[in-house]
Specification:
- The structure holds 3 protein chains of 3 kinds.
- The longest helix of chain A is centred in the last third of the chain and has 18 residues, at 140-157.
- In chain A, helix 2 crosses helix 5 (140-157) and helix 3 crosses helix 5 (140-157).
- Chain A is of the alpha+beta class.
- Chain A is built from 5 helices and 5 strands, in the order ββαβββαααα.
- Chain C is α+β, with helices and mostly antiparallel strands.
- In chain C, strands 4-5-10-6-7 form a 5-stranded antiparallel sheet. In chain C, strands 11-12-13-14 form a 4-stranded antiparallel sheet, with helices on both faces.
- The longest helix of chain C has 19 residues, at 245-263.
- Classes of the chains: A alpha+beta, B alpha+beta, C alpha+beta.
């Protein structure tokens, strides 16, 4: 077992884990943050996407011990004081989610996408989401939501 | 449309917030006190005898509580996994339905067949120990593909099914069809395969079983589209305990697409194992395990022939299909290629005579069953490919050949030669609407522009019909179903006027918590924030048949309407009493009961309160309380239909096909929430485009699944798809109280042939006349090479 | 995944010591290739030696006419580095097309080269640009580095610390990605280097390889037309995959043409 210390959604945690424990298992099983999901075992689907030190990563392709000392943000940490992040709000108003299973990973990646590229084209959004699968929406309304959120955030920054 | 939240309002979903905050509650999120974990040992062989299983090393591994095998299943008397539909052969005999033990007994019949179950303190420990279970297999010859399975001398999956034939069935009038072919001017024929696909809901299946020895009661959390059906099958056939001892909860479920309809071995086994180990047992599928254990879909080989007059009028259709069942019969498997496929072969067309023969075949592969569309995509694909080919061979415009054969609006109700009676539709209207949306008249200009970029542009069309809103119980019973297909609802009005709706359908993405609240709002005028929709728990819901076949709004919504009728009827009695008027004079509108022709009124809330505080009350004739239930059994299927148009660009150098435009016009009946209806269409389109271009379960000749992960099975990504143009033209369903038809599957049904027709259209100038699904780059490139006499 | 011991040495020397003392130890960089294969039990190391805490492996710097990129620099860092984008845009473009955004945030140059997946993108860049792989003990020319399927010239206890890329006159990468995995079915990198035109092909063979005939043709005339006169023999290409050797051979030529056009 290894002892690790990390920040998750702004709170410090100390955990004893087997070295083979994946970050996603630490989040789901040890910290009971079940908003981060697992949809595959080959790191394709992106349902497990979280931020580690501000960058979106697939938490099924990272060991918990690698996150020692890191700051992790999960979907549970995105809304502030009960107020949805503009990306969450846009997914809601644009109907960018159906079953909700891919949604946490999709939202986390989408927020990073518009942070990196505040004014993306539809094509850039579609390519920017190639690490996240959705089986419900056909992506149509997800793309719309990301473009809408980008616009909202740009407007707010002005 | 009534108010801002009633029918026709694009209300943002009530259920979104918990999902967006990461607070959804999916099966794998549930950890019970004393939780243990199960992992299955699965056969690596497609076909093998099981000589022995040695669990001694596994039992010694850290944290292991039990290792269970088929022998334990047999010793405890668990029933085989039942098939819920029996097909009658041409000769009057019944189909072959072999025993499907929950854990293999004596023989494994497909790669992935569960052979043993390891239960341990943690999932990691169970996985470690599963590798220590030693199974001595005697590999046998296996068969995976339809044509190989029906060949002379093929390996036999089941001794009791000679030639691997499960059933040999037919529908339609063979003689009348023969007569049409005999006098036809032209006959066009086509050989097709409908590619095998994996459902791939992003949430893998999971089950968490708990036996409470104090109450002698079982609770199962499971990823199901229909918890009551699972309770029915477990109670009566597999676990064999009475319903009141069995609670099935399907909490938030991360997509179904058909795959979570069926009763699977794993959910039975965790519940059974919980009783054996005395603690809750949870299993969650890996994706690679899902490929080997979730029911696959499609997998047909078909020969189809269309008889026409020289001016392109359809006269007769003959179809011969082999349908893969896999190694065991899944819950609804036999119904898919028969009653959900052959009955649809008339499509939206007048075809005087149709004859279809379907042989279902066992193979050493994962069982097949319904996947989004279920039989109807297969029917639509063969018909729309055949119609396109006929247009080309007869030199008739592909739009016009369809237009002149469509059933006209004045021909409804329309009786097809393959059992169904369509109640209503307006197929020319959806055809025109879609053509306008894609600006068909300017296709030539777009094609020329594509050419300047070295791309071949193609236009593809599909006019389709589907049957959903399943289904009239008496009819499906006569056809072999083991259950009724009505739906149930309870509407509970609380004393302060808020409402809980209990529905037997299950929402796993469809948005029922919103749309069913909108139905109640439409009828009772209550704001949707005061309406709760409860689903997915057999302890809370009176009964239900679940969600599949685009039935929830049409059948489940109608049950809610019927329950509301009873509520309104009773409320009028209460209001009449309060207003000192006769019941016949009470009108109900906008949430208010009014004495006709006066301004004397009581609000719905006042009536509800009175029902629970019956001080001034017609107690002699009316019970207190305001709650009622209804079971709605549909009178007929519903028949959504429409037109799907696709434009593709093919890169002739690489064979890559890009879908550049999709415009559809559907008639899905009355629409509750346009935003949600469009979303359902989008998802179906992605599924259908995925089948046409990307997705395929590939087995080798020995029955090994080669496309067993997302590394090799190609799921549609955002960049593989364009934005979609979705239109609707409504003709309300004539036989249910809501007018709703259903929308969940239309995209997956209508669009695949439009994609392939577009690819063939793009390649036609090069001489290509056929391409199979999925139209992968190499397949397209080879078709081009072959047409041009190249080396490939 | 099987369990293992996890180590976080603070220096390359300590990492080498750990590798020397454990035959079945493996290095962990970004883990985007290694962890997926460990999850499928296709790799079962006894020890994982993480490079994450070793300083100095995450730098991108210009040295004369070379660009030196540290082993732990992520694909995303290469793709978005102004230095790389300006001096070797073909390399930045290649890095920006590896996997997907999340994988590019974790995956590293050194990890990719040590793994030596025959369908990975970076080997094409390293070989076409005539780069040098710098390890804890020596420099290895790209031409000598890739020795076979998942095989390299690295000793079991040898650690890549960086890669030295000579800046070419121009370079471009054209990739035909696998639709599911996004690995290269065929990827062709073309570069005009000080030592001449170099063309490297990934995906199509058991390891990345050069196309000397095309290089010669391009040396004479750097136009996409040069491709048509060059034979790519299917017999030398990968078999048993989803793509046939004939199709792979065809794609090599198409991707080469597109890379040349992007380069010219």
């Amino acid at each position: 077992m290894a002892t690790i210390t990390l920040q998750v959604n702004g709170k410090s945690h100390v955990a004893d884990v087997e070295p083979r424990t994946l970050l996603v298992d630490l989040l789901r099983e040890h910290l009971r943050l079940t908003g981060t999901h697992v949809g595959c075992d080959t790191s394709q689907c992106g349902a497990c996407t979280v931020w580690v030190d501000g960058k979106s990563v697939k938490s099924c392709a990272m060991l918990a011990v690698e996150a020692d000392g890191a700051a992790v943000t999960t979907i549970e940490g995105l809304a502030k004081d009960g107020k949805l992040h503009p990306m969450q709000e846009a997914f809601h108003t644009c109907h960018g989610l159906q079953c909700g299973f891919c949604t946490p990973g999709m939202v986390m990646r989408s927020v990073e996408l518009i942070q990196r590229n505040p004014n993306p084209t539809e094509d850039e959004v579609r390519h920017g989401l190639e690490g996240n699968f959705c089986r419900c929406t056909g992506y149509h309304n997800i793309v719309k939501a990301v473009l809408t959120a980008a616009e909202t955030v740009r407007g707010g920054a002005q | 449309m009534s108010g801002a939240e009633g029918l026709g309002a694009s209300v943002a979903r009530k259920e979104d917030r918990r999902f967006l905050l990461g607070r959804g509650r999916y099966t794998d999120d549930i950890t019970l006190p004393g939780q243990t974990h199960a992992v299955f040992v699965r056969s690596p062989h497609a076909h093998a005898t099981i000589r022995s299983i040695d669990a001694s090393q596994a039992l010694k591994a850290p944290g292991v509580l039990a290792v269970l095998t088929g022998a334990d299943v047999a010793a405890d008397g668990l029933g085989g996994i039942p098939c819920g539909w029996t097909i009658t052969n041409k000769d009057g005999s019944k189909m072959v339905a072999p025993l499907h033990p929950a854990l293999a007994q004596g023989k494994a019949r497909h790669a992935g067949d569960p052979v043993a179950m390891v239960i341990a303190e943690t999932r990691a420990q169970a996985k470690d120990a599963a590798q220590l279970v030693e199974v001595d297999y005697g590999p046998q010859p296996a068969v995976a593909h339809l044509n190989a399975a029906v060949a002379a001398g093929a390996p036999q999956v089941w001794d009791e099914a000679p030639g691997n034939v499960c059933f040999d069935w037919h529908l339609g009038d063979a003689a009348a069809t023969e007569a049409e072919f005999a006098k036809a001017d032209r006959v066009v024929s086509l050989d097709l395969t409908n590619n095998r696909v994996a459902p791939n809901a992003i949430e893998p299946r999971a089950a968490n079983g708990h036996f409470d020895d104090v109450d002698d009661r079982y609770t199962l959390y499971t990823t199901s589209q229909n918890p009551h059906l699972i309770r029915l099958l477990m109670g009566a056939f597999t676990l064999k305990v009475p319903e009141h001892k069995l609670r099935i909860v399907a909490p938030d479920v991360g997509g179904g697409f058909g795959s979570k309809i069926f009763h699977y071995a794993e959910e039975l086994l965790v519940l059974w194992a919980s009783r054996r180990v005395g603690r809750p047992v949870k299993w969650t599928s890996d994706r690679s395990e899902a490929f080997l254990s979730d029911a696959h879909g499609r997998d047909h080989v078909t020969h189809a022939e269309l008889a026409l007059t020289s001016d392109g009028k359809f006269r007769g259709l003959r179809v011969r299909t082999l349908a893969n069942m896999g190694a065991y019969l899944s819950t609804f498997a036999p119904a898919i290629p028969t009653y959900l496929h052959a009955t649809l072969l008339s499509g939206p067309y007048v075809i005087p005579a149709i004859y279809a023969e379907v042989k279902a075949i066992f193979t050493n592969t994962v069982p097949l069953d319904a996947v989004r569309g279920a039989g109807r995509p297969e029917a639509t694909y063969l018909l729309e490919r055949l119609v396109d080919k006929a247009a080309r061979e007869l030199g008739i415009d592909r739009v016009e050949i369809r237009r002149q054969n469509l059933i006209q609006p004045n021909q409804f109700p329309y009786q097809t030669p393959v059992a169904l009676q369509y109640d209503i539709g307006d197929y020319p209207a959806t055809l025109d609407m879609a053509l306008q949306a894609i600006d068909y008249g300017k296709f030539g200009e777009r094609k020329a522009e594509s050419e300047t970029r070295g791309k071949l542009r193609g236009f593809g069309i599909s006019t389709y019909i589907e049957a959903c809103g399943i289904a009239p119980s008496a009819l499906v019973g006569a056809l072999g179903a083991g259950a009724g297909l009505y739906e149930a609802a309870t509407v509970r009005v609380h004393p302060t006027g808020s409402v809980s709706v209990f529905t037997g359908t299950h929402s796993h993405g469809q948005g029922h918590e919103t749309t069913f609240a909108q139905l109640v709002n439409e009828r009772l005028g209550i704001p949707i924030e005061n309406i709760e929709v409860v689903h997915g728990d057999t302890d809370r819901i009176p009964f239900g048949m679940g969600t599949y076949g685009s039935r929830s709004a049409a059948v489940g919504g109608s049950a809610i309407y019927k329950a509301i009728d009873k509520i309104v009827e009773k409320s009028k009695k209460i209001a009449a009493h309060l207003l000192e008027a006769s019941v016949a004079d009470i009108e109900f509108e906008d949430g208010k009961f009014r004495v006709a022709g006066t301004d004397r009124e009581k609000t719905f809330g006042e009536v509800a309160f009175t029902a629970y505080v019956p001080h001034n009350y017609p107690i002699e004739t009316t019970e207190p309380g305001l709650e009622d239930s209804a079971f709605y059994d549909p009178k007929n299927f519903t028949f959504p239909g429409g037109c799907h148009l696709v434009e593709v660009e093919v890169d002739p150098e690489t064979g890559v096909v890009e879908v550049v435009d999709v415009a559809i016009a559907d008639d899905v009946g009355v629409i509750i929430n346009p935003m949600i209806v469009d979303g359902q269409a989008h998802g179906g389109l992605a599924h259908g485009i995925g089948q046409a271009l990307l997705e395929e379960c590939v087995y080798d000749d020995d029955g090994q699944l080669l496309s067993g992960s997302f590394m090799s099975y190609c799921m549609p990504r955002a960049a593989d798809l364009p934005s979609f143009k979705v239109g609707n033209h409504v003709t309300p369903c004539t036989h249910n109280p809501t007018g709703i038809k259903g929308v969940g599957e239309v995209g997956a049904i209508g669009v695949p042939p439009a994609v392939i027709n577009a690819v063939i259209d793009a390649l036609a100038p090069l001489g290509v006349t056929d391409i199979s699904m999925p139209a992968t780059p190499e397949k397209v490139w080879r078709a081009i090479q072959a047409a041009q006499g190249g080396a490939a | 995944m099987r369990n293992f011991e996890f180590h976080r040495p603070q220096s390359v020397a300590d990492a080498v010591t750990l590798l020397k003392s454990n035959d079945a130890a493996k290095l962990l960089a970004g883990g985007q290739s290694l962890l997926p294969v460990m999850k499928l039990d296709l790799a079962q190391p006894s020890d994982l030696v993480s490079l994450a805490r070793i300083p100095g492996l995450r730098e991108i710097r210009a040295e004369g006419n070379d660009l030196v990129i540290g082993a732990l620099v992520t694909h995303d860092a290469v793709a978005s580095s102004p230095e790389v984008r300006q001096r070797i845009p073909g390399l930045a473009g290649l890095a920006g097309g590896i996997g997907d955004a999340q994988i590019r945030n974790r995956g590293t140059l050194g990890g990719s080269l040590a793994h030596a997946d025959p369908a990975a993108d970076y080997p094409a860049a390293v070989l076409a640009l005539g780069a040098t792989i710098v390890t804890d003990r020596r420099s290895i020319a790209a031409d000598d580095y890739f020795t076979g399927l998942f095989q390299t010239a690295l000793a079991p206890d040898e650690i890549i610390t960086g890669v030295r890329f000579p800046v070419p006159a121009c370079s471009a990468y054209a990739k035909f990605p696998h639709p599911a995995s996004k690995y290269a079915v065929v990827g062709v990198m073309v570069a005009k280097t000080a030592g001449g035109v170099r063309v490297a092909v990934t995906g199509a063979g058991s390891k990345v390889f050069r196309l000397p005939a095309l290089e010669a043709a391009l040396a004479a005339s750097f136009t996409s037309g040069a491709v048509s006169g060059v034979e790519v023999a299917p017999a030398n290409l990968r078999t048993g995959g989803e793509a046939s050797p004939e199709y792979l051979a065809h794609l090599v030529k198409v991707m080469a043409k597109r890379a040349i056009e992007a380069c010219a």
